Amino acid sequence: MSRNGLYAVIAILLVAIVGFGIYTYQQQQARPGLEVRIDEQGVSIDGNG
Fold first, then answer.
1. Would you say the C-alpha torsion 19, 24, 27, 28 has a positive or negative sign?
2. Which residues of 2-27 are buried (b: 16+ CB within 10 A; e: fewer)?
3. CB-side neighbour CA atoms (13 Å) of 1
4. The predicted structure's pLDDT at residue 49
5. φ and ψ at 36, to 5 degrees?
6. Which DSSP letter does residue 20 get?
7. For residue 36, what is the DSSP state?
8. Are 35 and 46 in contact (CB under 8 A)?
9. In a 3-state reduction of DSSP, which class is residue 45?
10. Residue 43 is inside which H or E element, if any?
11. Diameter of the chain by CA atoms?
């Protein structure tokens, strides 16, 4: 394998790792940390944890 081919494989792997990291971060941010509802039944607080 030539050096250029090796550099291309490394670059593709780095792009895949960075892309997966960004995707994972966005999924973590999409979850609500705390939800407060006020309705006829009163106040209810839901949180993940």
1. negative
2. eeeeeeeeeeeeeeeeeeeeeeeeee
3. 8
4. 52
5. -115, 125
6. H
7. E
8. yes
9. strand
10. strand 42-47
11. 70
> Mean pLDDT over residues 26-36, rounded?
80
* Token output for 20: 């997966």
Reported pTM: 0.58
What is the distance between the alpha carbons of residues 33 and 46, in angstroms, rounded to a whole number?
A: 8
Token pair for 30: 């999409």
Q: How many domains does the chain have?
A: 1
pLDDT band at 47 (very low <50, low <70, confident <90, very high): confident
Q: Where would I find the beta strands (DSSP E) of 1-49?
A: 34-39, 42-47
Which domain, by its residues, includes 9? 3-47
Q: Which sign does the torsion angle of CA 12, 13, 16, 19 carry?
A: negative
